[in-house]
Amino acid sequence: MPEQILELSALYQFLNYFFFIEELLANIAEETNLYSSQMNPNKPRNCTVYDIQKFLGVCMISSLARHSSIGDPWSNILGINLVKETVSKTF
Fold first, then answer.
1. Which residues contact residue 30 at a Cβ distance below 8 angstroms, ignoring those fewer than 6 apart?
2. Quick check: is 91 in a domain?
3. With 0-12 CB in 10 A as exposed, 13-18 as middle and 19+ as buried, what is 69?
C-alpha cells in the first residue's frame, strides 16, 4: 500500500485521494458551466471547483439526518448551520 494512503487521517482526505480528484471536479465544474450557458445564455453561472466541493459537502452533511423536505437543512428550526453558512438556498 502506498505510504500516502497510510497518512490519510480524515474522511475528507480519503475521499479527495480516491474519488474527488481535482481533474474530476474541474470536469464537473466545466460541464456545469456548459449546461448553464446552454440553458440560459444571457445569465450563465460561473461554477468553480470550490463550488462543486461545497455542494458535495452539503450533500454529505445533509445525508446524515433524515429530512422531510429538500429545504429542511436551511430552515430556521431544523436547519444545519454549516449548510446555511456554506451554500445559499437559492444557489
1. none
2. no
3. exposed
Q: Pull the grid cell for residue 88.
A: 445559499
Beta-carbon neighbour count of residue 2 at 10 Å? 7
Distance CA 90, CA 54 (A): 14
Mean pLDDT, consecutive 10-residue stretches, the chain (91 aa), reads 74 75 92 94 91 83 68 62 66 52
Q: Which ranges constitute the DSSP H helices of the chain?
A: 3-6, 11-18, 22-39, 49-62, 81-86
Statement: the pTM of the whole predicted model exceeds 0.90:
no
Please give the residue range of the domain that contains residue 17.
3-86
